[in-house]
## 1
Amino acid sequence: MSALLQPAPPTPAKVSLWRLFRQERGGMVGLGVLGGFVVMAVLASVLVDDSALDVTANVMNPELAPPSPQFWLGTDENGRSVLALVVKGSQVSLLVGLAATAISIAIGTLVGIASGHFRNWFGGLLERLTDWFLVIPFLPLAIVLATVLGHSLLNVIAVIGVTSWPATARLVRAQTLTVEARPFVERARALGGGDWHVMSRHVLPNVMPLVMANTTLTVAVAILSETTLSFLGLGDPFAISWGSMLEGAFVSGAISRGAWWYLLPPGLCVVAVVLAFTLIGRALETALNPRLRER
Amino acid sequence: MSQPPLLELRGLQVHYAGARGAPVRAVDGVDLTVRRGEIIALAGESGCGKTTLARTVLGLERPAGGQILVDGVALGSRRRELTAWRRRVQLVPQDPMGSLNPRRTVLDAVAEGLRIHRLPGDERALVIDALERAGLRPAERFLGRFPHELSGGQRQRVLIAGALVLGPELLVADEPVSSLDASVRGAILALLLKLRDELGLTVLVVTHDLGLAWNIADRLAVMYLGRLVEVGPTEEVLADPQHPYTQALLSVVPESRHLKPIVLRGEPPDPAKIPNGCRFNPRCPALASGRASAVAGSCTSVGLEVLHGTGEHEAACWLSASPALRPLSY
Amino acid sequence: MVGEPLLELRDLHVTYPSLQGPVRAVRGVDLTVRAGTVVGLAGESGCGKSTLASTVLRMQAPSAQVSGEVLVDGEDVMTMRWGRLRAVRWAEASMVFQGALHSLNPVRRIGQQIAEPITLHEPKTTARAAALRAGELLERVGLPANRARSYPHQLSGGQRQRVMIAMALACSPRLLVADEPTTALDVMVQAQVLDLLTGLVRDLDLGLLLISHDLSVLGTTCDRVAVMYAGRIVEEAPARAVFADARHPYGKALSAAFPTIGDPASRRAPRGLAGDPPFPGALPVGCSFEPRCPSAIGACSSTDPQLLPAGPDRQAACLRVAADGSWLSPEPTRQETP
C-alpha cells in the first residue's frame, strides 16, 4: 500500500513573498522612493563635483541665495549649492543608517536567539545584558563618546548600534521561545541535534522573517538618530549629511533669515526616506503574516 | 533465547520538579523487557507517564533511579554512551504537521539525522532508500517538496523515513496515527508491521488507542500514574483483562460494544499526589462496587509490587489471580 | 424518532473562490436532524463537514457562495435578516467547536464566558442572574458551580470541553452542532463527554448533529449516521447499520479502520485505504472515491453516482449497490450517464 504522489494540490500557501509584497501599494511606493534615494547616493560621487562642496571654491557664489536657474535649491552660507549638498549628504545619511542597523541587527539577533535558546544561567545573563543596554540613554551616551573619543562617523555608528540592538534582541528572543516550543525542534533534539544545530538550522530560518520586517524599521530609526546627532554637532564636522546641513542652517541663522531652501530639502529628504522604510516594513509585515492580509 | 534482550528497564524512575519543589514522580518504578523484533504498545491516559517513559528510553530524559540495560549492559550517563545509544533508537513523533520544519524540504528533513551525526555515504541515495521503505514512491519526486504540500499520511511517512535513515534497531512511535485521518491509519500501521517483518525492527508504540494495540502489538503494557498496572501478550490482556483499570478502558472503547461501559468518574489524577496503597484505589470501580471488599484493606494501604514485564500476563491488583504479590519495599 | 425536524439541509452547495479556481466544498447535501435524536456526520479532512457545520449558523467564510436551503426550525438561515439571524444564533441553534482550548478566551474567567451569550440575548438580565444561570449550566455538565471563577488554563481538556457544552446551552437552544467534540481527548474522557451529550439530548429533547472522523464513536452514540466524502453524502443509514454493515466502500473502509478488539480478522492486519482524502479543488471526473476504491469498476471513473435507496431506511451513492442494498458484480449498472 504505497502512497501515490497526487498532482500537487493547489494549496493557497507559499505564493512567493515578492508577489504578496507587490500587492501592497504602500510598500511599492516606499520601495520606489527608497530606490530613488539609493540611486542618488550611489551616483553622488559622480553627480557632484568635489569643487561644489569645497568651501573655498565657492566663495564667489552668493551666500544663502534663493533658488535660481543656476542653483536649483539655492546656496548655503558658504555659497555652496544646496542641491549638491543634499545629493552628497544622502551618502552619509544612508550609509550610517545602514551600517548602524547592520550592527544592531547582528548583535540583536545573536543575543536574542542565544538568550531564548539557553534556559540556564547563560541565557539569564544575556537577558540581563539586554535589559542593561536597553536603558542606556541615547543622547548622553553620544555626548560622552563624542567628548571622550572625538567626533567621528564611527562613533555615531557605534552609538546608534549600541543603543538599538536590545529592542531587536527582545523581539527575537520572544520569537525564539515560540519556535522552540514547536514539535520539529523536539524532533531535531531527538535526532541528536545539539544547540548549534537547533539554533542555526531551525530557529534562525524561522526568526528571519520577523528580523527582516524589523530591520526596515530599525534603519528608519537609525537614519533619524544620525540626523539628530549630526544636528547636535556630535557627528563628524567634515562629513556632509542631511543632519549636518540642518545644523549648518540653524547655526548660520537661516531660519531668521528666511532661507527655507536650506532647511526644507534636507528635512524633507529625511522624512521621505524614513517614511519609505516604514511603508516597506509595514508591507513586509503584512505580506509575511497571513492574518493581517485578510483585512 | 541466549541473546540478551535489546532493552531492559529495571525499576526505572523519572522525576521532574513540580510546582512547589516537591518532585513529581512521572515514572515511579517500571520493569519492562523488550526483545528484538517485538512490537510493544504502551497504553494509558494523559498524565500516566507513558510519554516520559518513551522519552527516557530515547535518551531525552535522565532517569532519577533504576537502570536501563541495552543488550544486557547498563547504560551509563556519560555523553558518549548516550550518543551511541541514541543512534540505535529513533523517534517517530506525533503531529506530523508540527514535527516538520515548514521551511525545509523533505530531503532536508529526512537527511537531518545523517547531517547531525556526520554519517558517511551518499546522502541522497540514503534518503531515497529510506523514503521508499516508508512507502513514498517514486521517492525522487518528494525530495524537493515542503511539508504543507503533502497530505497527513505522507508527512507521517516522511517522519518514519527520517527515523529509518539512521538504521535504528528500535523505533519509539509516539501516537503515530492519532492525528491522521481514519482511512489513512491502516496504511501507516501496516507499514510499521512491514518494517518489523522486513528489517527486524523493534517498535515501542505509545498510544491511548487500544484498538491500535490489537492491530499491531505483540505485547501490551497499560500504565497508570507512573506504574505498569497490567502487562502481557495483547490477546491475553485484551481478551481477559485482570486489572479494573484495563477493564474500564476496554469497556469504553467504542469498538468493544459487547462490554458494559464502565465510565470512570473524575479526571486522570495528578502525578504529584499519588494515593496510598494501590494508586488506582480512589477511582477503582471494583472497590466502589464492593467486588473487592475482601481485599479492600490492602487496596487503600498496602503498595503493590512492580510488575516484572518480561512476557507473561501480569496485573498489579490485589484482586487479580497473578502470582502472589508481595507488598513493596520501595 | 418522531420529533419535529429542527434542522433541514436541502440541496446545500457551498463553493469557495480561490486563485486556482472554484473549490466545491459541499456539493448537494440533504440532511435532517429531528428533536430528541442524534445524527452523526462522519468524514475526514477535506470532505466539507466543517463547512457544512458553519452554514447552520451562517458562519461560513464571507467569500463562500451558498445555494440551497438551511432550515433551522423551519426558517431558512441563509435568507434571514440580520436581526433575526442574531436572535437565532445561540438561542435556537448553537455550536460546540473543535479545539476547546482555542475557543475559550484565556484571560477571562469561564463563568463570565458562559454568561456572555445570556446577557447578549437577554439584555435585561442582571449580572447576578446571569452568573447564577452560568453556575446552573456548569452543574448540568457535571462541573461544580464554583469552577466558574477559574480561568481556562486551570482546567483539563475534558473539563474545558464541558465548559464549551455549557456555553452552547446557555440560551436554551433546541439544536446543537458539535464539531469533533472529542477528538483530542482521552478515551475515558471521551466516553464521559459523549455520555453527557446523549444525556442532554434525552433530558432536554434537543437535536444534535455530531461530527467526527471516528465512525466507531458515532456508531455508539447516534441514531442515524451520514458518511460524507468530497462534499457529498455517500451513505446514510441507522447508526448501527453503517458501523456494522456499511454498503458504500468508503463507509466500509472507515468502519474497518477502527478494529473490533477481539476480532481475529484484524489481529496484525490493519485495514485502510491507499492514497489520501481528495482535495476539494481538484476532484476527479466521475465518482470522487474511485481513485481509492478497492471495488471500482470501469463505469465508476465516468459516472458520478447519486444518493439512492440501498435497502430499507438507508441510502448509498455507489454504482455497485442495488436498490435493495445488495452488492452488484461488475456489470452494467442501474445508473445511466446523466
Note: The two ends of chain B are 31 Å apart (CA to CA).
## 2
Amino acid sequence: MSEVLLQQIEKLAAEAQTKSAQLRKGETIVEVDQRQLKNFIKRLVTETSARHLSTITGLDLDQNIGIIYHFWIERNTIHVKTFVPKTAPAALSIVDIVPGAILYEMEIHDMFGITFEGNPWIDKKLLLPDNWPSDLPPPLLKNANAAEIRKRLGLEVEKK
Amino acid sequence: MIEQTGNAVRKEESAGLMKYSAENLVPFGPIHPALKEPEYFKLVLEGERIVEVIPRIGYVHRGLEKTAESRPWVQNMYMFERTCGICSFVHSLTYGQAVEGLTIYEIPRRAKFIRTIIAELERIHSHLLWVGLMGHWTGFETLFMWVWRDREVVLDLVEAISGNRVHKSMNAFCGVRRDMPEGMEDRIVERMKFLVDRANYYKQIVDTEETMLERTEGVGRISPDTAEKLCAVGPMARYVGLKHDIRLNDPYAAYEEVPFDIVTRKEGDAHALLKLRLDELIVSANMISYAVKHLPSGPIRIKIPPIIPAGEHSSHSEAPRGEIFYYVKSSGGRTPDRVKSRQPTLANLPTALEMLKGQTLADIPVVLTAIDPCFGCMDRMSFVDIESNKKWTWSGEQLRQYGISKYFPERSKKQARTHSQPGQEVTSTKLCYKEEGF
C-alpha cells in the first residue's frame, strides 16, 4: 500500500520536474514550483488515494512565504511545499479541487496576507477583527510585533 | 455618526451580505463577556429553508501560534493544553508527539499506556457532555440532567489520576508527569462497567423516546462523497460510513496494543451521530478497562534537554471531535520557529455549513450541535429572509424555544410568551439584551 503510494508520488514529482524526499518513515515532502502546484495537487488527488487535506500551513522564510499542504492517507503524510515571494503574495486557490480547503486558505490570507485566486470568500475576514489596521503587517509574519498589534487594536491593559 | 455608518457598511461587506441587503443593515450586538461563546453565522432564508450560511469566527482568537514563537518548548505544551476546556489533554499530546518526532528518544511503554487511558477518559467525558447538550437543544432536559450526572464519574477518575478535573497537565516530552496511583485498577474497571450500562440505557432511550426521534431522524443529512470532499474529520466522517479514525489508521500512543473496533454508521443523520457517539463511548470504556489491566511496569518519563534539534515535523491524533493536527519547525533553539495547530471544529465547519443548507430554521440548533462545535452555543444569529426582505436577530435561547415550539406546539405554549415569534422583527440589539435579562 505504502510502497505503491510512494512510487506514485515519486512519479508525479518527476513529471513536475521536482524531487520528493522522505523526511522519515511515513512522511514525504515534495517541493513544487508555485506555477505547477495546482496541477500537481489535481493529479495527486485524482491519481493516488490521497483525499484528505489535513490543513494548510504558512511559514515565514525571510524572502519568501512557504505554504505547506498536508495530505494524509493511511500511515503516510504528504507535505506539498511551495514558495510565494513576499513582494507578490498571491497563489492559486485549490478550492475547486479540494473544497475543504476554503477556510484554511482564508486563514492563511488573514495571517500571512496571501491572496488565493479563485477562492470565493477570500475577500472576507475569518479570524482577524473587522477593524484590523490595513497598514499593519499580517500578524504571523516575523516582523509583526505583538505589543504593537495590541496597542493599535486598543487591547492594552494598563498596569497598576 | 458618519464613522459609525462606515463601520457598519464595512462589517456588512466583510460578512458578504451586500448582494442580499443593499440599504438595510442587520444589527449585530457587541461581544459581551456574559455571552457564552461568541460566534456568528449569517443565514439567508427562503421562507423557512436555509439557502446560504456565512460563518464569521475568530472572536476568541488569542494568537497562540504567535505567542508560541516566543516561549520555550516546554511552556508551549501547557499553553496549548489551554486551547480547549474539554479536549485539553489531546492538544498537549499531539504537540508533544510533534516535538518528540524531532528528538531521538523513545517514549517508555508505560507512559504510552497512561496517555491512552487519559485520552480515552477525555473522549468519554466529551461524548457524554455532547449527548447532554443534544438533549438540551432538542428540549429533552431529563436526558441532559442524567448524562451530566454520569459525566461526574469520569471527572472524578481524571481528578484521582491527575489531580485536576479539566486541564490535566499530565504530559511531558517523552513521557507523562504523574504515574497512575496505586490500587486504582479495580475502581476504574468498576466505574467503566457502570458507564457501559448507562450508555446502553441511553442508547435504548434515544431509539424509543419520541422527542429524540422526531428532532433528530433525517436531520442534517449529507452524502459520504460530500463529507470526503469537504475533508470532514472524526465522528462527522464516521457517521456517513467513512472509516476515518486516526487511532486505527495511523496509531499513536498505545493504540496498536490496545484492541478496539472502529464504529461507523450508514444513515448519516443526527440520530446516527447520537448512536455513534454512544457506541464509541462503550468502546472507549472497554479500552480503558483493558489498558488498566495490562498496564506495563517501568519508567514513565525520559528527561530531555531543553534544546530541540533543528527540523520540521507534524503529528495528528484523534480528539473526541476528530483529527487534531500540529506542525512544528525548529531552528535548533530554545523556542520554536513556528507552531501550527488545527482544531477539528475548523475542519468540520464546511461540512456543517453544507448540512445546514436545505434545513429549516427549527433544525439549526440540532444540526449545529451535531458537529459538537467547540464554539458551542449559538448565542446570536442574524436572519435574512430573501422573499419578504425581513431581517431579525435571535439569541440562542430564542432559537431553541422556536425549534421546540415548531415540533411540539402544545409543550411550549407556556414558555412561548417571553420569546419573539417566528418572523417577528427585532430591530435593535437592545431588545435582545433586555430579553436575556441584561
Note: Chain B touches chain A at residues 7, 10-11, 14-16, 54-58, 61, 63, 65-67, 70, 101, 228-232, 244, 249-250, 312-314, 316, 323, 325, 327, 329, 338, 340, 342, 346-347, 349-350 (CB under 8 Å).
